[in-house]
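Encode chain A's predicted structure.
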Amino acid sequence: MCGVCHSWAPPTLSPHLNDVPYRLNEVTNQEEQCCVSMAAGLPHSCAGILRCLGRNTFISLRGLLLLTGRHLEARNIILAFAGTLRYGLIPNLLGRGSSARFNSRDAVWWWLQCIQEYCTLVPDGVSILKCPVSRMYPTNVSEPQPAGAWDQPLYDVIQEAMQRHMQGIQFRETNAGPQLDPNMTEEGFNVQAGVDQTTGFIYGGNRFNCGTWMDKMGESTKAQNKGIPATPRDGSAVEIVGLCKSIVHWLVKLHNNGHFPYKAVNVCRGGQTYSVSYVEWDCKIQENFEKKFYISHDPEDSEDKHPELVHKRGIYKDSFGASSPWCDYQLRPNFPIAMVVAPELFTVVKAWEALGIAEKKLLGPLGMKTLDPDDMVYCGVYDKNLDNNNFNQAKGFNYHQGPEWLWLLGYFLRAKLYFAKKIGKETYDKTANLVKNILSRHNVHLERSHWKGLPELTNENGEHCPFSSESQASSIATILEVLYDL
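Encoded structure for chain A:
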């Protein structure tokens, strides 16, 4: 899944790696540090604008590079993307940096999570925080700056990302219009993200764009879904809230240990500036998470503003505050991500029950159903070439509305192992056996695969999907993470 950017010369590695600034650019220079990139999937996501995707890179980086000991490559990728930070976000579509799209609300949080993992797993990993980063967009300039024009340590770039979110992010994509995305409506090019001051939750998006990994945009004129996101997931997406909690909690510890110089972010509103400490932010998310995301068995629960929309209880919402409130209550496999990265948010008994419901309703032979089969818009067969009158299906509109994605299974199994251990040895032993039985299917698939990889997704009940990448970075990565946990 790793490849060298061919516009770069073979590497001349400095003996003082911490002194080398990194940035993706187009200069061929024998003295330049070589930077690898990671293809999201073969054969569909490895060339052109799809060659290097920020979100997929950092979902995959821990499993493929950190756990396998490829620390230098992981470090180079982290620092290269740091150089592209703009508006407080990193791009999902990298476009060699100069033509990047900053329309992803979650990529920056996966990037931050990988920095945390690097600091934790790599010997002397915290030294990366002082590495110089050559910024493409250090201010609100519209043109990318030349390499070396503005260098700053990685910890400053991290602080900028946190600061910008607390202040609030709002901009219109560069070159917005059909030349950038022929399916997007005008409102879809408006990007918004921020922090809810009452809950501490990251929120953002609107009903005409899709800023999380479930990012399918409607393309069919015939079915009248063109320009309509299948899963906008605006509001506060559960996995982003979990990732934010993980990062904020980590920054508190980093600061206390003297590795991060900032203990707060500053906010300027109404002409006044005030500080929000990372300790306060951490506590606020902790205090509000289960209140807002857990769907209680008690129909009289005062925290639930839309009890008429509940169709399953004892689970965690997929989002909070969506423009279409019914989307909040859909059973999807995103909450196990939050369980893995920020398990302290969850009550053990509630978490275990929710995982049991997910297992019963969403677990497939190789992956996790992306939507509850009981949901009225569930469709488990993905066919991106089909163009009919079916709004929920035409042109692959159901990409994340049922097909079984493999990378999510990794997080589900890791969450099961974590909370099983909290319950007791007998439960853990049974869970470990279950996990091994499930992974045996992946072993069989790997042995039979001409690509020697695991697919991006399958259709319902594990059936082969011809439109899926045959070898997906995130699928292999999260399965490796399960094996590591075992």
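The longest helix spans residues 425-448.
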